[in-house]
Amino acid sequence: MPARLAPRRTAPGISLRLPVLLLLTWILSATGAAAQSQNERPPANKGPSVWHPEALEAIDRLKSPFCPGFMLEVCPSPDAAALRDSIEMLAEGGMRADSIVEWMLARHGQQWRALPPARGRSLVAWIVPPAVLLLGIAVVVIVLRRMRRAPEGGAPTDEVSPEEDARLDAAIRELETEEEPLF
Predict the structure, then answer these.
(1) Quick check: 116 and 126 in contact, CB under 8 A?
(2) pLDDT digits over 88-136, tens only?
(3) Do residues 60 and 104 lie in contact, with contact meaning Cβ atoms separated by under 8 Å?
(4) What is d(CA 55, CA 84) in angstroms, rounded to the nearest whole number?
(5) How far is CA 124 from the centre of its chain?
C-alpha cells in the first residue's frame, strides 16, 4: 500500500490571507494608476462643449496627421485632441477657417487636406467627376431612346394571325391537360 501523506498543518486562515492580500494590492494599484493617468492627460474626445463655427469648418476640411485614414474630427488620438483644441483657440482668437487650415498644413504637410483646393491643377478634381456623371446619364438616355424605337423595316405588330392564334390555343389546352391532378 502506498504511504499516506500527512496533511499539511498550517495556522488557521493563513492559506487565504496571501491571495486576498495580493488581490487587494492589485486592486489598489490599478485604481491608483488609473487616477494618475486621468490627471496627466484628459480623454481624447473631450473638448469645448460649444465649438466655434470657424474651428468646426477648419476641422471638417482636415484629415488627421495622427490617425492616417481618419478625419481630424473623429481621430481618437490625444495628439489630435490637442490639435483640435489649438484650432479652437485660434478660431476664438479671430482667425478665419482658411487661415487655420493653411496654418495646420504648414505645420504638418499638404497631404492632410481633406479636399483639394478649387484652383489651379486641383480644379480638375472638381470638374471631371460631375462631367463624367453627366456624360454617363446622357449616354444612358440616348441608348434607352434608341432601344425604345421600333426597328426599321420589320417592326413588330400587336396583331396575332389566325394561324398563331390556333397554335397558342392548342398549346394552352395541352398545358391544362398536363396540369390536371391525377387523384
Answers:
(1) yes
(2) 989 988 889 888 888 888 888 888 888 777 778 878 888 899 999 999 9
(3) no
(4) 8
(5) 26
Q: Residue 73: which of 61, 86, 59 has the closest Cα? A: 59
Confidence (pTM)? 0.45
Between CA 1 and CA 4 the distance in angstroms is 9
Residue 94 gets the label, from left (phi > 0), alpha (psi -120 to 50) or beta, of left
> What residue has cell string 485614414?
69
CA 162 → CA 145, 158, 165, 167, distances in Å? Answer: 33, 13, 5, 9
- 78 burial via Cβ count (<10 Å: 0-12, 13-18, 19+): middle
Contact predicate 58/87, CB 8 Å:
yes
